[in-house]
């Protein structure tokens, strides 16, 4: 079967170009001049770039987004009819008919899917927040998560959950309350029993249902109580896939921790062993895709198999590629990027068998069409969008840019190493910014640095997974072969993440994303001009030469490596804890003023707050809550025992809207990125003290990148004594003083904490005399080397640099301790 091409011939003067009537209509691109045939009748032959399926694919995606809205769904039909009427005489009317049909069909498929889900008894129960007992079939391997719906802040009985917390996707089959059901459910659970569940197994699960979003998708979640009850074991092939994963983990356990975790993440996407610091650095440097199985993994593995079997025969090679594709899906799990790669690869294998060349773009488009019609929710999946966009960039941009660089004398290998990360960064940047509120300025050099080793490390890892179940010693040897390559990846992530201004905050709003997209497109078009390109290079080099030393000598705000910031919000407390992830921070109290709170978070570039804690309900700690919620994603708000004053408590739900309110009893452990929060108190209610609400403040020990920070709310001597009597480990590197520097802090409490850095959230010329001179003397006697006050220093930060604590005031230089 031959591919159609369009042949353009020069027209006579005054004439017009003619087109060979025997070929199909398609958009095409020119061959480079040095590849054009010498035949004068074909001197302008163009190589095919078949974009015919691009329009239908985009229409299906748009329809999947519009379908859940009943109004939009009905308007699609007359709008499509109007378009067809306008183009009824167009020579491309059949292409328009295909696009309109895809848009309309997809909208109705998506709409019916949404209606069916909303009417299912499980969905109805989830919207009511009901308890349920479900019989389910597992559809994914368990994945370790931090937080999730419910915040991950407490166990089902209010006790501290085990770490990590597991997320398992299941399909509900029956409900004890409603009989047969048909709904996908995300189960969040703790306990060792959940780690070993296998896709295909049938379980009975119990817990409380809720409706909301997870990773941007409409989701039914179940907070599981207790372990699962096995009703039917998984099929043999799913059990075999689980065995492969387990043996890979066993082989990886013989490596250094970071290398072992990277090996498992690279091969099967299991990130449960990845340390928070490595995870955060990978995200900051644009290397997080190494921990999520994607199309590049399929390309490397299936491509290697097809090449090895090609000498045996074409059909054998195609069958081998198909077997490997199915095996990878089973072992990795049916994640959006995996399914996109699998469907696209299957289409490519069929095209190879039929002798059809240049099928990458049509295969991508048909994979999108097939998957979105099967599961319209994928239209909202960030992982699916990133996978499709990255693949499209590699197909459309990389060949052109690589050839352009080769024409300028670049070796083909180096041209590819540069073109691939640049193309991937450009096309995925809008989605990444919408998710993270930041742009990585080191993503391209980081990906260039690891590009030569990724494929080899992946092949070693796949061989390790395949051989391990049969020959464990060989699996260990193969894992050790990959170790140096994996350690290089970790080194690149850690090193580049600490470059000055490695991550640039950017508004995650639709307007911010649109501006960034427009600027990127304009730059790509403008830089095609050689003179402008040379000028831009000169400006870039000059800017780096001037700005980089300035950044090293005098850092901006926020200071690199900050772990905690006390915000200047007047007479009140408001602190932000770093999670190590760009744009993501945990808020502890919100001060009295929403505008000041919002400004502090804006200065830090915070766009997502996985948890905001209200230590107690006095106005100087909670009235700024609206500023935290303004324009940011807030996953949960946590509170302790305190419910007074009553007007403040009753006002919170109205302020929060759909944001869940979670309880933080003593013993709770909560994690996000490289931040761990442990709730130390209150362990009991207080009655009859000088201030019961103050004494019932939530007291937490935060650990960020190894730095211990004691957060004390407004606790008085009574609560301080309870903590000391309970034998709590109060030793900290940083102390947030109780009650804005009140004199009501005991010497024994300060001695037990013995923090070298003390933070005081206090307003200028306040009416309370805070901080009390006696308190300042007491913290000095307890060993404090630095006392930072928001009334004198504005926003203040504590950083961890090269194993030393450092402090900074906004706009001031560093004062390094030890």
Automatic annotation (TrEMBL):
Domain Metallo-beta-lactamase: 571-764
Pfam families documented for this protein: Competence (PF03772), Lactamase_B (PF00753)
Record bears the keyword Cell inner membrane: no
GO cellular component annotations of the record: plasma membrane
Membrane-topology descriptor: Multi-pass membrane protein
CDD domains: ComA-like_MBL-fold
Regions that span the bilayer: 287-309, 316-332, 380-400, 412-436, 448-468, 475-496, 508-527, 534-553
SMART domains: Lactamase_B
Keyword set includes Membrane: yes
Annotated localization: Cell membrane
UniProt keyword terms in alphabetical order: Cell membrane, Membrane, Transmembrane, Transmembrane helix
Main location: membrane
Name of the protein in its database record: ComEC/Rec2 family competence protein
């Amino acid at each position: 079967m031959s591919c159609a091409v369009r042949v353009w011939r020069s027209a006579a003067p005054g004439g017009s170009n003619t087109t060979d009537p025997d070929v199909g209509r398609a958009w095409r691109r020119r061959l480079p001049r040095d590849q054009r045939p010498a035949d004068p009748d074909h001197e302008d032959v163009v190589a095919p770039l078949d974009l015919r399926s691009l329009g239908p694919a985009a229409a299906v995606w748009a329809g999947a987004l519009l379908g859940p809205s009943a109004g939009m769904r009905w308007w699609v039909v007359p709008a499509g009819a109007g378009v067809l009427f306008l183009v009824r005489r167009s020579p491309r009317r059949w292409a328009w008919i295909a696009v309109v049909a895809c848009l309309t069909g997809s909208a109705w498929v998506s709409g019916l899917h949404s209606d069916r889900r909303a009417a299912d008894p499980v969905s109805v129960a989830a919207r009511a927040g009901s308890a349920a007992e479900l019989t389910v079939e597992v559809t994914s391997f368990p994945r370790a998560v931090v937080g999730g719906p419910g915040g991950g802040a407490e166990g089902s009985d209010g006790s501290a959950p085990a770490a990590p917390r597991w997320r398992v996707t299941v399909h509900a089959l029956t409900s004890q309350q409603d009989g047969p059901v048909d709904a996908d459910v995300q189960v969040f659970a703790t306990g060792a029993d959940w780690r070993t569940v296998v896709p295909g197994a049938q379980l009975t699960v119990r817990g409380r249902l809720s409706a909301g979003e997870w990773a941007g998708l409409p989701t039914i979640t179940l907070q599981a109580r207790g372990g699962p009850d096995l009703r039917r074991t998984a099929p043999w092939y799913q059990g075999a896939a689980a065995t492969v994963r387990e043996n890979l983990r066993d082989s990886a356990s013989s490596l250094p921790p970071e290398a072992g975790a990277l090996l498992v993440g690279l091969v099967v996407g299991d990130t449960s062993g990845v340390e928070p610091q490595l995870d955060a650095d990978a995200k900051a440097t644009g290397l997080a895709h190494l921990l999520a199985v994607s199309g590049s993994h399929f390309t490397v593995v299936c491509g290697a198999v097809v090449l090895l079997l090609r000498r045996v025969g074409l059909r054998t090679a195609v069958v081998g590629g198909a077997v490997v594709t199915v095996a990878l899906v089973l072992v990795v799990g049916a994640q959006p990027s995996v399914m996109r790669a699998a469907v696209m690869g299957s289409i490519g294998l069929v095209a190879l068998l039929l002798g059809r060349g240049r099928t990458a773009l049509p295969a991508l488009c048909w994979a999108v069409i097939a998957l979105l019609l099967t599961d319209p929710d994928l239209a909202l999946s960030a992982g699916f969008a990133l996978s499709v966009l990255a693949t499209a960039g590699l197909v459309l941009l990389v060949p052109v840019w690589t050839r352009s660089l080769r024409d300028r004398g670049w070796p083909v290998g180096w041209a590819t190493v540069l073109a691939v990360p640049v193309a991937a960064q450009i096309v995925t940047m809008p989605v990444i910014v919408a998710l993270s509120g930041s742009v990585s300025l080191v993503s391209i050099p980081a990906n260039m640095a690891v590009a030569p080793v990724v494929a080899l490390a992946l092949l070693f890892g796949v061989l390790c997974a395949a051989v391990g179940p049969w020959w464990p010693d060989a699996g260990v040897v193969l894992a050790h072969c990959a170790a140096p390559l994996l350690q290089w990846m970790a080194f690149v992530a850690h090193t580049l993440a600490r470059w000055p201004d490695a991550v640039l905050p950017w508004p995650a709003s639709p307007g911010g994303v649109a501006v960034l997209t427009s600027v990127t497109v304009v730059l790509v078009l403008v830089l095609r001009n050689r003179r402008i390109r040379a000028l831009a290079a000169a400006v870039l080099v000059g800017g780096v030469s001037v700005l980089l030393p300035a950044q090293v000598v005098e850092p901006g705000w926020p200071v690199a490596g900050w772990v905690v910031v006390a915000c200047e919000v007047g007479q009140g407390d408001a602190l932000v804890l770093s999670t190590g992830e760009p744009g993501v921070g945990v808020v502890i109290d919100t001060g009295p003023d929403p505008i000041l709170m919002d400004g502090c978070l804006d200065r830090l570039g915070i766009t997502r707050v996985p948890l905001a804690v209200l230590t107690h309900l006095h106005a100087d700690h909670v009235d700024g809550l609206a500023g935290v919620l303004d324009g940011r994603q807030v996953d949960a708000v946590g509170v302790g025992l305190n419910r007074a004053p009553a007007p403040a408590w009753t006002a919170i739900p109205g302020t929060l809207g759909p944001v869940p309110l979670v309880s933080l009893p003593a013993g709770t452990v909560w994690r996000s990125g490289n931040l761990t929060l442990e709730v130390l108190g209150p362990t009991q209610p207080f009655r009859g003290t000088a201030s019961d609400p103050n004494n019932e403040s939530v007291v937490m020990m935060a650990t960020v990148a190894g730095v211990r920070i004691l957060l004390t709310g407004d606790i008085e001597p009574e609560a301080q004594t309870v903590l000391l009597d309970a034998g709590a480990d109060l030793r900290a590197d940083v102390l947030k003083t109780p009650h804005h520097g009140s004199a009501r802090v005991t010497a024994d409490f300060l001695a037990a904490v013995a923090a070298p850095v003390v933070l005081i959230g206090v307003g200028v010329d306040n009416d309370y005399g805070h901080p009390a001179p006696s308190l300042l003397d007491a913290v000095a006697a307890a060993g404090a080397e630095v006392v930072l006050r928001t009334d004198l220093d504005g926003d203040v930060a504590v950083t961890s640099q090269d194993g030393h604590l450092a402090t900074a005031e906004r706009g001031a230089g560093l004062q390094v301790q030890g």
